[in-house]
Structures are given as C-alpha cells and as structure tokens.
Amino acid sequence: MNTLEQEKILLKGLATEDRTSIERIYRDHFNMVKSLIVNNNGTADDAADIFQEAMIVLFEKAKLEHFELNCQLKTFIYSICRRLWLKKLQHLNRFSTQSESLEETVPVEEEIESHEKKQNDFNLMEMAMSKIGEPCKSLLEAYYIQKKHMQEIAADFGYTNADNAKTQKYKCLVRLKKLFFAQYKNID
C-alpha cells in the first residue's frame, strides 16, 4: 500500500474518530511540528497546543465529503501549524507584524521542497523495491529494515555462510540501484 492510500485511510479514520488513526497521525507528525515551534521562539507546550489546533482543523476537513488532500499529509499539517504559529507570534508581538520578517523567521518553502523531494525519492525506492523480486526484496529488508546480521540472514535464506549472503546482498543492491535510477531518469 502506497503512502497516498495510507494517508486516505488515516483521514477516514480521523473523520470517524478512530483512536488508532489519531495516534498514528500524532506519532508521525508531532516531532516535525515541535521542531518548527521550538526553533522559532516557542516551547514544547506551544507545539502541543498548535498541533492540537491543527488536528481540529484536519478533523473538520476530513469530515467533509468533498475534501481531497492535494499534498502529503505532513505538508498539510506543517502548513497549518506554521500559519497558526505565525498568527500566535503576531498576537504576542514577539516579532514585528510585517509578514516579510515573519517569512524570514520560518522559511517554509525550502523545508516543504526538501520534504517533498525526500518523499518522492522514498516513493521511487518503494516502487523499485516492489519490482526487484524475491529473494532480493526479503534479503534487503532483513538487512536494512530488520537489522539482521549476515549470519542470521545466511541461516534464514539457506546460504552456506555469511560471505555468500553478503555477496547476494551486494548483487541485490546493484539491481535495486539500477531500478531506482531508471525510474529516477524517467521523471526528469
């Protein structure tokens, strides 16, 4: 299941007040918001308040039948929190009310671009992983995601020793890189 489908499921869960969906959204995105707030003259408590307000906005939007998310969920949450925080800063008069100086304080465009670029790369890698086939997919997941040692992988996959498993992992990585960069060239 790709990220977009997962986010649609999370939004449906949020609209029906599903506790698991709400906790997942919080777990996946709160630290990003906390960094934004703390790095811009706020506290962890401010971040919690702003995030809660953003969750209310997101909840109200998710309940609307015609609402369709046109960006990643983290981008949407980030932009809501950023706007709420800027309003709060203006209200507290911590900064001048000129929007230009506020824009310099919270350089969101570069961060969103960076997040979108990373997400795009992750999506391409996910597609490449789905195309690589077995046993490469399972072997790479065992090593990089499950953090298994080569001896354990050799035993699990039936290789005679850890060196053979390591050689196979290398061959799988070469295949994965070819698939990834072939897709990467196609989007440019």
Question: What distinguishing features does this structure have?
Answer:
single chain; 188 residues; mainly alpha; Arc Repressor Mutant, subunit A; 2 domains; 0% strand
What is the count of distinct domains? Answer: 2
Low-confidence stretches: 95-100
Cα distance, first to last residue?
25 Å
Tell me the number of helical segments per DSSP (H or I, 4 or more residues long). Answer: 9
The amount of helix comes to over 70%
Helix and strand content put the structural class at mainly alpha
Shape: elongated
- Report the sheet with the most strands, covering strand number, pairing sense and barrel closure: none
Number of strands: 0
Order of helices and strands: HHHHHHHHH
Question: What's the overall average pLDDT, rounded?
Answer: 81
Radius of gyration: 21 Å
- Strand residue content: under 5%
Report on the structure:
This protein has 188 residues and is mainly alpha-helical. It contains 9 helices and no strands. Mean pLDDT is 81; it is low at 95-100.
List the helices and strands and how they pair.
Elements (H helix, E strand, L loop, with lengths): L2 H13 L3 H20 L5 H20 L9 H20 L6 H7 L2 H25 L3 H10 L4 H8 L4 H26 L1
Helix pairs in contact: 1-2, 1-3, 2-3, 2-4, 3-4, 4-6, 6-9, 7-9, 8-9
Summarize the structure.
The chain has 188 residues and is mainly alpha-helical. It is 79% helix and 0% strand.
